[in-house]
Design a protein that fits this description.
Blueprint: E1 2-8, E2 15-22, E3 29-38, H1 41-47, E4 57-58, E5 63-70, E6 82-85, H2 94-97, H3 107-111, E7 123-125, E8 128-130, E9 143-147, E10 151-153, H4 160-163, H5 169-180, E11 188-192, H6 196-207, E12 212-216, H7 220-229, E13 233-235, H8 243-250, E14 255-260, H9 265-269, H10 271-274, E15 275-283, H11 300-306, E16 309-312, H12 320-332, E17 342-346, H13 350-358, E18 364-368
Helix pairs in contact: 5-6, 6-7
Amino acid sequence: MKITAAVTLAPGEPFVLKEVELDPPRAGEVLVRIIGAGLCHTDLVASAGMLPVSMPAVFGHEGAGIVEEVGPGVTKVEPGDKVVITFTSCGTCPQCQRHEPAYCHSMPALNFTGQRPDGSKSMRDGSGEISGRFFGQSSFATHALATERGVVKVLNGVPLEIAGTLGCGIQTGAGAIMRSMACHQGSSLVVLGGGAVGLSAVMAASLQSCRSIIVVEPGAQRRELALALGATHTIDPTFVDDVATTVRGICPAGVDYVFDTSGIPAAIAAVPRLLAPRGTFGFVGVPPANASNLGLPGTLREVMRAGFTYRGIIEGDSDPDIFIPQLMSLYLEGRFPFDKLVTTYSLADINRAVEEQQQGLCVKPVLLP
């Protein structure tokens, strides 16, 4: 079928809207008409050529829409169902069998290569094949081919156009607090970075009844939003001489948890000075490839002496079939207002959405075909 998609023709180039041909669903696949797709930093990393996806390619991995057709063997959804599309997984490896699909043994091959497991591609135009299936979807388009394991039904009352944001960034931030680190009631937390992932962590920390929720973020609007969503303190790292000293002024013994979403080497280097004894450092932010020091913060002696735990986090340790409905239910109860993070744009304005997100003018852009 003919669809319209935002195509990246070469690494680092702007998105271009083009008509492309999309395959019908094969076994285990689901054709979804996209209603809205979130824009995530990982899409920009991939479009810059930093993941093993050959160009031209269609990215987008926070889609939501309506099922139009299902391939052979699909029983989880049927045409007409409203769904969130999230990452995909194999379903058979030991991690999937333990309900930890974010650590699927085939995660890179299934989500980051732009092709099916058999090496075939799902899109093409008059010039040749186009990489699709990014995170099992490629949802910067009017339609996407998802996998059965990668779709979750949307609960009645949840706005479909923004529901796709639950598929990656928001479940990552919330899951880091609620699942990966399981921050306990009365605990203290520093969140480094006030983007969509960091602010989702703030909302989750409020749900977990954390006592102190400190957000380190240079953007004034994002700091204000953090306070509105449950942060108890915010710090402008460009205004204070030393973030660690400022944090210790709030929590003299240090904090129980630090969650980094920034990937900024200087911020990460300060983590041992932020943590209380037996504190946990969870991280999703990855330093840039040209950073001089890509190692974990502190020395082995420091980490051992204080009993720190360092925790790499993928997708908030989410089992999407369980966690995404949980977040939707919390939203419907008025306890997880993720809609406050969203600014909508038309798919045709995708490049403007990228620029405005990078300028800090919005937190979570959602593209409407």
